[in-house]
Amino acid sequence: MEPAQPLTSRPPQVVVLRGDARPPGMEPVERAADVRYVREDGLAEALPGADVLFVYDFWTEAVAAAWPAEDAPPWVHIASAGVDRLLFPALVDSETIVTNSRGVFDRPIAEYVLGLVLCFAKDLHTTLRLQAEGVWRHRETEPIAGARAVVVGTGPIGRAIARTLTAAGLRVSGIGRTARSGDPDLGEVLPDDRLHEALAEADYAVLAAPLTDRTRGMIDRAALRAMRPTARLINIGRGPLVVEDDLVGALRTGEIAGAALDVFVDEPLPSPSPLWELPNVIVSPHMSGDIVGWRDELVRLFADNLDRRVHGRPLRNVVDKRLGYVGSGAPASS
Question: Residue 13: in which H helix or E strand, if any?
Answer without folding.
Answer: strand 13-17
